[in-house]
Amino acid sequence: MTNQEIAEIFERIGDMLDILGENRYKVLAYRRAAENIRHLPRDLRSYWQAGALQDIPGIGPAIEEKIEELLTTGRLGFYERLQDQVPVGVVSLLQIPDVGPKTAKLLWERLGVQSVAEVEEAARAGRLRTLPGLGSRSEARILAGIQALHRRSDRIPLGTAWPAATALLDGLRAACSEVVQTAVAGSLRRMRSTIGDIDLLAASLAPATVMRAFATLPQVAEVILSGQTKTSVRLHNGLQADLRVLEPDRWGAALQYFTGSQTHNIHLREMAQKQGLSLSEYGFKREDGSEIRCPEEAMVYETLGLPWIPPELREDRGEIEAALAGKLPRLVEGSDIQGDLHAHTDWSDGANTLAEMAEAARQRGYRYLVISDHTQGLGIARGLSPERLQAQRVPIDALNAQWDDFTLLQGCELEIKADGRLDFPDEVLARLDFVVASVHTSLRQDPEQITARILNAIRNPYVDVIGHPSGRILGQREESAADVEAIIQAAAETGTALEINSTPNRLDLDDVHVRRAVELGVKLAINSDAHHTGGLDSLIYGLATARRGWATAADILNTLSLEELRAWRQARIARATGRAG
Ligand code: DGT
Ligand code: CA
Ligand code: CA
Ligand code: ZN
Questions:
Q1: 3-151 has which CATH code?
Q2: How many CA atoms lie within 13 A of 286 on its CB side?
Q3: Closest C-alpha among 473, 537, 577 to residue 162
Q4: Greatest CA separation found in the chain?
Q5: For atom 14 of ligand 1, which residue has the closest CA?
Q6: Is the beta carbon of 157 within 6 A of some atom in ligand 1?
Q7: Where in the chain is the domain with CATH 3.20.20.140?
């Protein structure tokens, strides 16, 4: 059994217990075990053989016993008994956005439905609205959720694929001395928010040796296809990865070709044809059959009379025209980032202390970190009252006395309440160094209602940034109905910044909205929204999203120095309060 299959069983056990109304902690324990097994770098069996199952976070004696049963017999009695109580089809209803365990149970018990298709049929027949607690609005929402489900593919988040790909290439270089060069290609190199499969390249004069080394890496669960220049494998974590091996003097051409996107490549090929050249993954061919090999990627572009184009822009969204006109943007880079404007601590729902978060930010070379714990309105995240917020100032000041190269700023992640009011009055917000305002509840309101809530926050003089404006969770929750265009326009008027939340399953704003914000001169904040020290590293995904949206350092708020950042807030407040202050 693969890790993926075992993880799925535990995931399903969690869902079944949830539908049966079991204890919350028990449900969470199974989900956590599933999540950790899913992301293991090696075969679960090897942990078991080493007697190290309980070293995996979230695996205690009860779950260890179940893993053993699965690995030795391929079956699990506990799971089979649960299936007698809850049909698998009922569990599948949980895939529908907005259908939780309570609703799934209700639909099953009252209507007897046991599949998404049956729910869809019942909704179309108007039978959902008759159930207690559901109305015609819920019915429409569930129907819309089913539509979204049909559109959804099984693409994986960038934040899952990127570390897996990097580890594979590290492993390959370590395992095989015949490898001259390696690179990530495909949508992953373009840093799309979701990835279909992982594309890897290696340059070598001994392709067969490299392929063999690749196929036997510990992450590999099975070889799907093995050809002369390409090997496709499935990893223990369920992802598919393709490795192509090529001659070093064709490296640039192959890297360019396999980075894509396909539409970008088609556009380049048309340009080549006009010059009497044909372009493929092997390089250029002239009409007389002679070759132009490209050991470097830039040579492909150079041959076509273009400057090198950053991979994040290669979607044929005007980058080739901009390159021809000498108008490619100088995209923001990691080294431009001076600090992070959104992080949580154990004062609300974060895992680490103020001191630990500060030290982690400082180690990453930042000059400042905004502590933005949740406010009281978000009860489930242990949101802070104005009093606790004031108390938090004391340790922050004490920590700041220790450094002269780094500053903790006190902020909050201000709850935008369901009725549109903000969680704190202006005088509390005025005392803070920085304010991120976000919507976390009632995300399914009508477009007018939810847009009005966010616009109200944008117009507050003390709100600096709107956090994760669209509310999407990749693979789980569609964007809210909020009118993002209206939000961007309002932000342009008030000078409020919008967040690019870097949490891998958010990436919100997305690249397309980022580009629109850049067009209208709106400042963007690339924030980690870290809930533990390691979470700070997610910033690379937000940075990539900013780059895919054509953002330069000047478009990004957290490229400012500490002094500039403080001045930026003060100037905005002064302007918004009519220069009274
Ligand atoms: P994905 O995997 O769906 O996230 O998207 P990509 O862009 O990684 O697509 P993939 O994995 O099918 O192929 C990787 C790149 O290789 C793609 O961006 C362009 C290039 N490529 C692969 N097959 C073809 C093809 O048949 N025609 C063209 N023009 N390009 C191809
Ligand atoms: Ca791919
Ligand atoms: Ca591929
Ligand atoms: Zn947050």
A1: 1.10.150.110
A2: 6
A3: 537
A4: 79
A5: 186
A6: no
A7: 337-576
Q: What one-character-per-residue DSSP string does 336-404 give? A: G--EEEEE--TTTT-SS-HHHHHHHHHHTT-SEEEE-PBBTT-GGGTPBPHHHHHHHHHHHHHHHTT-S
Give the Cβ contact number of residue 321 at 10 Å.
Answer: 12
Which residues make up the CATH 1.10.150.110 domain(s) of the chain? Answer: 3-151
Atom of ligand 1 nearest to the CA of 195: 4
Start-end ranges of CATH 3.30.210.10 in the chain? Answer: 255-324
Query: Domain 337-576 adopts which CATH fold?
Result: TIM Barrel (3.20.20)
List, for residues 58-71, the tens digit of each pLDDT value: 899 999 999 999 99
The ligand whose atoms approach the alpha carbon of 264 most closely is: 1
Task: Please state whether the predicted TM-score (pTM) of the whole model is above 0.85.
Answer: no
196 CA to centre of ligand 3 in angstroms: 7
Assign domain 255-324 to its CATH superfamily: DNA polymerase, thumb domain (3.30.210.10)
Which atom of ligand 1 is found nearest the CA of 187? 8
State whether the beta carbon of 232 lies less than 6 angstroms from ligand 1: no
Angstrom distances, CA of residue 99 to CA of 106, 191, 281: 10, 31, 46
Instruction: Among 262, 282, 297, name the best residue to mutate to test ligand 1's pocket (greatest count of ligand atoms within 8 A of Cβ).
Output: 262
Residue nearest to ligand 1 atom 3, measured at CA: 196
Q: Report the alpha-carbon distance of residue 514 to residue 498 in Å, rounded.
A: 9
How many CB atoms within 10 Å of residue 381? 19
**CATH homologous superfamily of 156-246:** Beta Polymerase, domain 2 (3.30.460.10)
Model confidence over 67-106: pLDDT tens digits? Answer: 999 999 989 999 999 999 998 889 989 988 889 888 999 9
Strands (E), 87-219: 156-157, 181-185, 194-195, 198-203
